[in-house]
# Entry
Amino acid sequence: MKCRHCGQLTSLPFLDLGSAPPSNAYLGKTDLNGPETWFPLRLLVCENCWLVQTEDHTGREALFTQNYAYFSSYSSTWLAHAQHYVSEIVERFHLNKHSQVVEVAANDGYLLQYVQQLGIPCYGIEPTTSTANVAREKGINIIEQFFGVDLAHELAQNNQQADLIVANNVLAHVPDINDFVKGFSRLLKPQGVATFEFPHLLRLVQENQFDTVYHEHYSYLSLSAVQHVFLSNGLTIFDVEELPTHGGSLRVFVQVSDSAAHVRTSAVSKLLQVEAEAGINSKDFYQNFQTKAESVKDAFLKFLLDAKCKGLKIGAYGAAAKGNTLLNFAGVRPDLLPYVVDKNPAKKGQYMPGSRIPIVDETYLRNDRPDYILILPWNLKTEMMAQLEYVREWNAKFVVAVPALEIL
# Structure
C-alpha cells in the first residue's frame, strides 16, 4: 500500500485486529436477518513520513453515512470541553461579531452553539445528515458536504473565508489527508488560525489504547507526522497543547505558511523532542504493540468466562465505537455480554455491529441489577460512574478492559 500522505510504499506492520464491520455501522432488528460487511483492520507505518494508517479497504461514504450514529452532545464532559475551548479561543484571538468561525465536522452543533451564543458569525461543515439536522435545529447553518480543496475554494469565492477554523477529532477520519489539509490553507483568511484536535499516537502506544483503532480512523497521528503533512500543504504549526480528552490528545494551532501573524512557541519544539526521545520516528517504537493488545484481549475474555462460570451477571455501558473494536477483536457475543446500555436515542433498540449485542436503555440496567458493569468508553469512566452511582445500592462493581483489565 502507498502512504496516503507521501506516496511511498508502506509495509511496516503495527497492529492487526483481524477483521470487523465499521464500528459505527449499528444494526436494526431487521438487519439481523442479513449479512454484514467486514473489512480487515490492520495498521501500517510509513517509514518515510512516519504516518500510521489503516490499510485501505473502503471509502468514506461507506463509513460516514446519512444515519451516522455518533452525536457529540451526549457527553457532558465533551460539551464542557467545547464550551471552555470557545471561551478561551475567543479571548486569545480577539474574535467578535466581525469575525467568521467555521467548524469542519461540526457534528450536532455541540461546539458552534457556544460560538453562536456569543454573537459571533459561524457556520459548520458536516457530511452526515443525521447530525447535521440536529445542528440545524439549534439554528446553526450547516453545509452538508465532505470538506476538501474544492469546497474550500467555493466557499472562499463566496466570501466565506474564516478567521478561525475548528477541526476536532476529524483529521484522523479523512482518507485523502492532503486534500483535506490543503482546504484549510485555502479557506483561512491571511491572518486566520485553525486548530486541530486528535488523539496523540504517543499516548495510544504508551497506554495500550488499541481499541481506538477502527476503520473510520484512517490515520493515527503524532506531532512529527502532522508537521510533515501541514508543511507540504501550506500550513505551519505555531503552538500545541496536550489535552486529557480521548485518553490523551493534542490541540495543534496552525496558520498559513506565508503568514507571520503568530510566533512559534517553545511548546512545539519541546513536544517534538519528547516524541523523538520516545523513538516515534524509528521501527522499534512500533514493534511490540500487537502483543500488548492481545494480552488485554486475553484478560478480558478470561474475566467474562470466569463471571459466566460463577453465575455472575454482566452488563455494559456506552455503545461506543471503541467498544465495538474491543468486542469484535475478542470475539465476544451476547452469551458473554448480553446487553449494552446507551442514552443516545439513535442507538437504543439497535445492535452492536459484529457482536450483535442489543443496545438498551437505562431502565433495563436498573431492572437487571448486574454484578459488574463494563464501561466500554473508558475515557469517560469518571463521567459514567457518576451517572450510575445508584448501582452501588446492589453492590455492583465497575470494570474497564483497556488499557488493562481493572475492577474499579
Summary: The domain at 72-286 is CATH 3.40.50.150 (Rossmann fold). The CA atoms of residues 303 and 309 lie 10 Å apart.
